[in-house]
Amino acid sequence: MTPSRVARIAATFSIAIGLSLFAGAVPAVATERVDRQIQSIELVGGPDTRFVIGERRYAGPITFTLFTDGISLSETASIEQYLEGIAEMPFSWPTQALQAQAVAARTYLARTLLPGRGGDGADHEYDICATSRCQVYRGVSLVEGPSGERWRAAVQNTADELVLYEGKPIEAVFTSMVGSRSRANQDVWSSAPVPYLQPVDSPEVGIAPYAEWSVEITADEFVAILMAEGLDVGGELEGISVDDPVEGDGRTTITITTSEGTDEILAPHLKGAFNRFGDELFPGLLPMRLEEGKKLPEPLPSYTFDVERVGTLPSALEEFLAPFDLVGVDSVVISGEGWGHGVGMSQWGARIFADQGVSYDEILSHYYSGLEPESVPDLVPDEVVVGLATQRSHYEVIVEGEAEIRVNGIASDSFLSGEWLVREWADGLIIVSADDPGSTLSLFQRFWPF
Fold this sequence. Notes:
The chain is built from nine helices and 21 strands. With 450 residues, the protein is α+β, with helices and mostly antiparallel strands. It has two domains: 1-11 and 31-170 and 371-439, no CATH class; 213-336, no CATH class. Strands 1, 2, 3, 4, 5, 6, 18, 19, 20 and 21 form a ten-stranded mixed beta sheet that branches. The radius of gyration is 26 Å and the shape is globular.
């Protein structure tokens, strides 16, 4: 193995990486680059080179950067490359629905970039994350697979198009399905009303899989979930009261009264409690199955629901039984619509409209209160840095093809292919052969200026 050029390494190491992408439970913390010799390693490939990390493939360039809380991974992508990697809608769906999604995704990106980097992006030097906290990004994993050309065409055929309000990209939020009607942003997030994020009808009932749903559990199970969430309730459920304001007047509040206390919970908070603890406390029960046998995607799929306590009158026999022999028969029924937050464009609604012959600009106009896409090429930069993962101790990467190594932003004369391990070492970062993790490339034994 020469110091100037690393020959292609035989691929005999089995990658077994479980890449944790931005675990929601890990709070963003203030970080800074580690003051060591090698702070970043960038891999730059040719047009056909691919970088495989976990189960995902990227075109790159990809960069590993050492911070005080671990190693971060990012990809620098052109805007087209980034949009082609969005995985928010099945590529087999109708063309007009795909084009509506492409414009919404581009607009969402443009809006995210407006204020500059903040939060975890500022801490770890990326513009937008790759998970549902932003919009789901999978590199080239899907666009180079079945139906990928349909999505690539949707991105290309809507090039430079954004939805604007008062000259700025809108908050182009979208959701899987809303049921019969979308939600006002102020009714879900308790934010100031946004004119283009107000309720509209959607044609999903009877067509979309979770347009309507119902969850029924015992009163004791309902109370157990609330207690796990930290509410001041316990004992037997005595009553449920739902304060559901008129559409546009704010969030729904549920008041729960038990034998040991009374507490209130907002509808989004209740959804979160079910999704955090429902499956954990009652595996096999939650998420529930619908009548046709399909399981709900989450224990509580949306913020749009009503809650009702259902009691059964005692039988004549029960008056002769001791209290400890009585079986609780009260249940709680939560009846709802849709899957997701319910604000903005419904993806299933877009699909159904497209099947009915509605164009992508009409779909966008419907869900965003009359706003239509415009061609504005100057509002989006040429490239974006996508945060793929943070706070990792190491990464295993397969280089399909050949890639140049850049250290601290400085190009080297070394190239690599095959399977590699990026990890921390005494002087910062290092990349070593996955076949021989104890080896060191000679280029990492020289001094690299910051």
